[in-house]
Amino acid sequence: MSRFKDTSGKDTPPISTASLPDIIFMLLFFFMVTTVMRETELLVKITLPEASEITKLEDKALVDYLYIGPPSNEALGTEPLMQLNDQFAKLDEIDPWVKLNEERRDEKEVPLITRSLKVDKGTYMKIVTDVKQELRKSNALKINYSAAQGR
Amino acid sequence: MADIAFLLLIFFLVTTTMDTEVGILRLLPPMEKAPQPTEANGRDVYEVNINDANELSVEGIPMDIQDLRSGVKEFMTNPENSLVLPERRSVNRAICEQGIALARSRMLHASDEVSKQVHQKELSTWEHKLAVTELIGDFQELPPNAVIALRTGSRTSYAMYMNVQNELEAAVEDLREALCKEKFHREFKELNEKSSDDRPLIKAIRAVHPQRISEAEPLEVQSIR
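^ Those are the sequences you sent over. The predicted structure of the assembly is below.
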């Protein structure tokens, strides 16, 4: 009766790793597809304020970012500065920035552009109010106060 | 092979940012015809001020931020028909039809293009209201110039400002949620703006409880103080 081997004394065979590369590739492709590279390097330190009543911005391609916060480089002081694209900007540079961003998009999309204000929570309102006034002057009325989910 | 794949995997793992952009959406008033909430009828304006010391006051009276939400709800619904809060006018089918008929006849007798356009606009607002009554029945309408005016000092902190914005948003959202539950037995948050069945419902609810927050002119703040 040796046709049926007694397997009780032996170890279980090791798990086959032949499918490991497949799994790795699958993960790799997933992350390759979902990755959005950060286009701009932040020159300001921003801790977003928390809010509970937040909405998600639908189309990321139609969002332009303004960053306001104290500069990362401490040699530049602690007063909050505004960053547009990848450099510090003054208030009067907002209008050309708005125009430039409108021109590079389709005409139909222009009214849908949202300007997202990423403002450090320690900032005083003065600079925020000034920036808002400039945006109104350039007729960029749809804005988003960027916030972190909280509470 | 697997080594290279691992290397790439780790690279993308590290560089991936999964965060979606979230925040509080607002529409700024256009520059040319900015509404002047201070000169509007006093009872129709809910003045929210945050001073340089981050202290909140509403209609000139100091208020705790926890009370702001209920304050805004009271302003928007005026449950006791108070004389210092906006007068809510009831809207029903008959009133809407009357309004439409009046606007139509005025349009016919309009002498010039400009007044014709004014009546055209009037007609479309009445038609919109009629559509709302068909969906949710009779409702109380907030006067068109009723507004929450939010003002800040120049040294108000942004964190406090966002707290207040959040409360204002929450108050309107609460009212809409309650109305939606009552009329449609569904949650307002679950209504989908992209679905053609839900869009009229969302519009109707927004018409009853509009979100009207005026981020008032900064210059006016200084003149008031």
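Chain A touches chain B through 53 residues (CB under 8 Å). The radius of gyration of chain A is 26 Å.

Shout if you want it in another format.
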